[in-house]
Structures are given as structure tokens and as C-alpha cells.
Amino acid sequence: MIFESLAEKLQKTLGKLKGKGKLSEKDVNNAMREVKLALLEADVNFKVVKKFINNVKERAVGHEVMESLTPGQQVIKIVNEELTKLMGETQSKIEFASSPPTIIMLCGLQGAGKTTTSGKLAGLFKKNGKTPLLVACDIYRPAAIKQLQVVGSSIGIPVFSMGDKQNPVNIAKAAIEYGKKNGNDVIIIDTAGRLHIDEDLMNELENIKDEVKPHEILLVVDAMTGQDAVTVAETFDNRLGIDGVILTKLDGDARGGAALSIRAVTQKPIKFVCMGEKLEQIEPFHPDRMASRILGMGDVLSLIEKAQASLDAKKAIELEKKLRNQQFTFEDFLEQLQQMKNLGPLDQILEMIPGMGSKQLKNLKVDEKELVKIEAIIQSMTKEERQNPSIIDGSRRKRIAKGSGTSIQDVNRLLKQFKETKKMIKKMGEMEKAMKKGKFKI
Ligand code: GDP
User: Fold this and answer.
1) The whole model's pTM is what?
2) CB atoms within 10 A of CB 241
3) What is the pLDDT of residues 323-335, one digit of tens each?
């Protein structure tokens, strides 16, 4: 889970306040001491923590909390609002140029995820109707050009490259000419990184900046490096003047220090976050939604957006019809499983659901392997069996178990679950009909 250890501690501390009918100043102070510790342990910049705690305390011991009916919840609301403020309040979008192409320069240290993120961004823009061009300006890291080409071809986006013998400034210039001729409205330049910040790197980036005048300079930083990421952001900003940050590897960041400090320290917004190596694992950054996720309040809006982007609306309507008419088969079930996979890892989806705090998620132990098993069982069924499971007798069960590498018990369990689900859907359908006729009232 993203920011797992921070989320767990904050939720535990604030959970203690929730049930209290009245809060004393001492209660608030005690809770804030624990919140402070949790933030420091999460590697949040200490100045940021100090200011944050003061802001919360100032508001929490005032009248708005002490005299309200649910003081604990008021404190949680304040923490949520202050966390949101810390991360920049509102979403900070990419400013597309009024006369295209919009030129975006990606920079950062080696290994931060620049090349991967260039592809992710291009893919996201393409989904939104743009025609991006990727530009390979990292001529030093072995295989960086090839990597970008592989990424580009996997999502159908052209990659401009002139090999590794040309000066990156010339490559960038030529790429823009090429992009203009070919109608590319967004040009994403993947620049070189180094293991550490050095003069040569900064000079090269400055030269590219001066020559191509990018509309946006985005710094890619690895969230798992915590305060180092904040220092990198400060340094790049001082030299280059960045417009925003893309935080990568949030999927492996249990602490959240970088995400919570970067904006407050550099005054530059986080524009996107990446949560995995796959090309679709990028999201626009919404401070309010992230604060809610950290506090276990879910993120329904992102979930809906993800679903809209990944699921097929027409198929969803068809499915609903089938469910109503009792025609739901294992084939539909299989399709559902596959669509669900498009949404991303199950634990990342679940934590967007309100009430799915870190504790609940741990208890739930989402077992993706179980889903793989179910998929294998359905795939081992014949078409006829999928449509009419009642024909699956003992010998067929044996064959399916063997074919899917599972046990007969696994097959039996799935068949039983499926039957019960169908029964339940039928009951719900009958209830709905009765309600419509006015025969059934709640
Ligand atoms: P570059 O040197 O900055 O261009 O970095 P790369 O794009 O080559 O990425 C370095 C490594 O980080 C690769 O193995 C990527 O697959 C991985 N990576 C990039 N973004 C993410 C992310 O959001 N989550 C995870 N888990 N890995 C990532």
C-alpha cells in the first residue's frame, strides 16, 4: 500500500480521537505528538512537520473543535485539510501551448524513472487525443535510446533519435523541427541523467533549455529516496527552474516523505505520480485525494476515473442486461476478471475505497493468486461448459482441475460460488421487480 507505515500510524492515532465525546487540549496535544513522530519517521522534512503540527494545533484547540458534537472527527477533518494544503491544495495540470507543439522536457537523476515516465506521459496524452513524439536525448546511459524505442513502439508512439554520437542540444532541435512537420502536438524530451548531480549534466540541461525553450520542465524523482528527492528537487529548481515534479515508485514508498515535503520545500507542484513499472501506472496528482488515501478515507473519484478509462462502457451495459436476464455465464465472468486486471493491482484499487484503511487491507490480504487460479479454471472449461455449467459432471471436473493445474476442490468451490452468485442475483432481481410494483417496501 502507498505510504503504508505512515497511513497506519496516522489512522491509529486519529482513530483514538474519533470515539471521544469531548476533547481536552491535552488530548489534542498528545495526538499531535504522535502525528509529529509519524511524519518524522516518514522522512518528512522537519521544518515542514513543525509548521504542519502548529497549523493543526492552532485550529484544533480552537472553538471549532472543542465545542463541536464530534470533536474527534473535526480534528481528522483539519488534518486532512492541512495535509492537502501541504501537497499543494489543487491539482496542477500541464499547460498546453496555445500554438502547438507543447514541448515538455523531462529531467532527473539516472534510475529515477525518466525513460519509463516519458513513455507513460506520452501514453496518457495519446489517450486524451494528443499525438505525442518522444525524443531520445539520453545518449550516455547504455541502452537508454533502445529502451525508449521499445516503450514507444509498445504504445504506438514515434520516437525521434539520432543515435548516441550527436550532441543532445542538436537532437532536441532537430526533433522539434521533425515534430512540427509531422503534426505532433506534444514533444516529450527524455534527457540524460547521472548518478549524482554534476556540473556537466546541469550545463547540458541548461543548453537544451536555452535552445528549445520548453513549455514545461518536469523533474522526475524517485519517491523511495525520501528527503534526498527533496534535495534533488531543490537543486534542479535552483539551476533550471522546474515547473513541476513527477514522483515515481510510489508503489514501493511506505513512508511518503518526498510526497509530503516537495511542494512545501520547493513551492513546485507534483503534477503526476507513478505507481508501478507498467506503462499505464501513472496518475495526475490530486493533493486532496492523496490526503484522503493516507487517512484511509478512500479516493472514489480516482477509482471512477480509472474505471472509466479502463473499462468498456458498452460491455458494462451488456453485462447488466445479462445479469438481469439470468444469462450470466462463465464467459462473462472471465471477461470481468480480465477487465478488472486492466484497472491495476487489486490492493491499489481497494485502498481507493472509503473505509479500506491500512488495517482492513492487511486483514483482507488480497490474494491475486486466487484470481489467477479462477481464471485458469475457467480457461480450462470448454465453451459449452462455460455457458452451461450444469453439464460439468465428475469426470469433467477432474479434467478441468488437471488442465488448470488446480485441485478438484478448487473447481468445486468455484462452481458452487458461481451458482450461489447467480441465485443471489436472481433474488435481487425479484426484489427490484417487487419494489417497482410497490409490493415490497423497505
Ligand atoms: P531513468 O534512468 O531515469 O531513465 O530510469 P528508467 O526509466 O530506466 O527506470 C529505472 C527503473 O525504475 C526501471 O527498472 C523502471 O522499470 C523502474 N520504474 C520506473 N518507474 C517506476 C514506478 O513507478 N514504480 C516502480 N516500481 N518501478 C519504476
Assistant:
1) 0.76
2) 11
3) 666 677 888 878 7
- Decide: 249 in ligand 1 pocket, CB within 6 A: yes
What letter would DSSP give residue 164?
B
Nearest-angstrom CA–CA distance, 442 and 437: 13
Residue with cell 513546485: 268
H runs (alpha helix) in 159-298: 168-181, 199-212, 227-240, 257-266, 287-294
Amino acid at 256: G
- Which of 71-85, 353-367, 387-401: highest mean pLDDT? 387-401
DSSP 191: -
Q: Which residue's alpha carbon is nearest to atom 27 within ligand 1? A: 277
Is any atom of ligand 1 closer than 6 Å to the C-beta of 193?
A: yes
Q: How far is the CA of 387 from the centre of ligand 1 (A)?
A: 43
Strands 132-136 and 186-190: parallel
Best mutation site among 195, 277, 348 for ligand 1 pocket (most ligand atoms within 8 Å of CB): 277
The backbone torsions φ and ψ at residue 167, rounded to the nearest 5 degrees and listed phi first, read -70, 130
Q: Which amino acid is at 51?
A: K
Q: What domains are defined for the chain? A: 4-86 (1.20.120.140), 102-285 (3.40.50.300), 308-350+367-436 (1.10.260.30)
CA of 372 from ligand 1 middle (Å) equals 26
272-289 pLDDT, tens digit per residue, is 999 999 999 999 999 998
CB-ligand 1 contact for 275 (6 Å cutoff): yes
Rounded mean pLDDT of the chain?
85
The contacts found for 371-374 with CB under 8 angstroms, 24 or more apart, are: 371/337, 371/340, 371/341, 371/346, 373/404, 373/406, 373/410, 374/337, 374/414
Closest CA to 82 of 47, 48, 52, 45: 52
CA distance 172 to 382: 54
CB distance 248 to ligand 1 below 6 Å = yes
Q: What is the pLDDT of residues 197-215, one digit of tens each?
A: 788 889 999 999 999 999 9
Distance CA 22, CA 431 (A): 43
- Which residues does the annotation place in the binding site for GTP? 108-115, 190-194, 248-251
Query: Rounded to 10 degrees, what is the CA torsion of 417, 418, 422, 423?
Result: -30
